[in-house]
Design brief:
alpha/beta; 2 domains; six-stranded mixed sheet
Length: 384
Amino acid sequence: MTSYFDKRWVKLPRGAEELEASVLAPGFRAGATHCGLKDGGETDVAVLVCDSPDVKSSVLLTRNAAAAAPIRVCRDNLDAAAVRAIAVNSGNANAATGDQGYRDALEMQSATASALGLDPREVAVAETGVIGVPLEIDLVTEGVRKAASSLGRDRATGFTRAIMTTDRAPKNLSVKAGGVTISAQAKGAGMIEPGFATMLCFVQTDAQIDDPEAGLRLATDRSFERITVDGQMSTNDTVVLQATGETETPLPHGLLEQVLLALALEVVADGEGAERIGRVEVTGARDPGEAERVARAIANSPLVKTALTGRDANWGRIAQAAGMALAGEEMDEPGPHSIDFQELGAETDEAEIGIALGRGNASAHVYFSDLTHEYIHINAEYTT
């Protein structure tokens, strides 16, 4: 079994063990089917349900001003603290689809609730795929009904495959530690620079979490909020955490953060066409906002990203990006004395680079992917 904790920046907490990734945490079931949004018979609609009526949950949604219809439905018509089920489709983002798109997302929510015997406000909806194309809602509602009729605890991988778009492989894992189990599924490869969420991520646990919103926010801040592939914030970013509390045992300290970081690094490694991933750390900034601004300027620089691809130890590109982020400010002239760039050209798939600004004590880091010819190929032909 391939480990999700084999990258240099993530660790499986002491005493934890990875379980079969296709098995959800106790108390949760999932199902998936093909409804016709994708060609070739690929699964494209999925449902996940919590069997406990006492579930506690939290939902994080994109801040993108062009938020998709399912995002707006979750904002308007969802009890985010008591989410029993999730309905999701791939192949169509249902974004930039106007009032009809909103009504379609509501209908998707209602159909799922009816199939599961739930209140619609207990059902979160999420969608991913092409933006600006009307949703074939009749296909989706029939799909959620079929998916809801084939639920099983061992179908997490099938659920994950149904939410993939340009992902090369499903991203899902299950971990047990301290007497509790946590399972999680994510998708994402392009249009990745989260703002309070990630592309799509769903997390389930039988642990007791007294404040799911605070716990999810902290873990997300340290994982999905630390990544970028192409500097583009999605219209559909969604993260949902569900906790049954049936074990009456709290989550071990740091477990949720490490699970989400493992998935976040998989998203970066799966960046469309990505071959290498990097971590840029900025130190010596005047304040956290400045450190963040410089780190993202470096991580999103096409010049730095292509240097990462070509293993070209061109530290001048790091200096340029940092200076661009601080345009109009005064800073000491950067150089090899203040830039850690050797791994930019190293024979490793994971590179650590950094810059010391010498302006203060604040720091920030960002994980990012390189930029290859394949990224251009994928996105030049995405709808054609």
